[in-house]
Amino acid sequence: MIVDTHLHVIDRSALDYPWLTGIEPLNRDWTYDAYARDARRAGISATLHMEVDVAETLIEAETAYVGSLASQPDSLIRGAIASCRPEEDGFAAYLERQQANPLAKGFRRVLHVMPDELSDQPLFRENLKRLGGTGLTFDLCVLPRQLDRAMQLADLAPDVTFILDHCGVPDIAADERQPWQDRVTELAKRPNVCAKISGIVAYADPETWVADTLRPYAEHVIRSFGWERVVWGSDWPVCTLGGGLLAWVAATHALLEGVSDDERTKLLSGNAKRIWGL
Questions:
Q1: Fold that domain 2-276 belongs to in CATH
Q2: Residue 21 to residues 28, 58, 276: CA-CA distances in angstroms?
Q3: Burial 130-145 (b: 16+ CB within 10 A, else e)
Q4: How far is CA 161 from CA 125, 135, 140, 156, in A?
Q5: How far apart (Å, rounded) are the C-alpha atoms in residues 195 and 225?
Q6: What is the spatial distance between Cα 142 and Cα 268, in angstroms, rounded to a whole number?
Q7: Does pTM top 0.90 for this prediction?
Q8: 145: confidence class by pLDDT, cuts 50, 70, 90
Q9: Which residues touch 260 (CB under 8 Å, ≥6 apart)?
């Protein structure tokens, strides 16, 4: 069975998603029920909801909304990676509130759409260090050119577990492996960083990719981080840009052909259960 560490639910009747404007393939509702139908067919037994960059005033409302989904009978949702604003003075109080919420398993501040200098701010870095000792993780959603900054954050807070999203967002369609490849290798030297093999079909040519198109990227990340520090994620519904959930799960199984049962289990479920206490 699979633990999906990266589900997005989009419900425009409940929350506001400013970034969706102009992204027509995704600019609609993507319901938990639609996800769960295909997820169960694919062998997914549990999932973490990943924040969807809602309007800033609705950050805590999003976590409450995810809680309502998690409380449904037989829900696959086991926790939430919540949005946050480490660059703001209110982060410490926000962190305290989330520590009291058993649904909260970690945080993400989307960085790939923000100025690079955001994570350089002293307050951002000071607040990030507050996660030390809480057991709450921090997802790094960065572009290849921002991987150097990801290394700086990991070095700044060595007792915080960081999760690199989407293999570091390589440009698979253009087969652009540098500087992504070398920077992933360097980032993996930080023992407090894990990597998420998640949704990389969205970065390949949607018409032509096959499992072997993805193989050099997934295998490089796994080789760099090792089987103890990789987890799997769908990135649904973003993965629909490259074929969808079932295609990505099928490709994942093809990529894992020949690995040991122990290695497969660590990537697909075991590591996630350990990291987030699922």
A1: TIM Barrel (3.20.20)
A2: 10, 17, 33
A3: bbeebebbbbbbbbbe
A4: 15, 8, 10, 12
A5: 7
A6: 23
A7: yes
A8: very high
A9: none
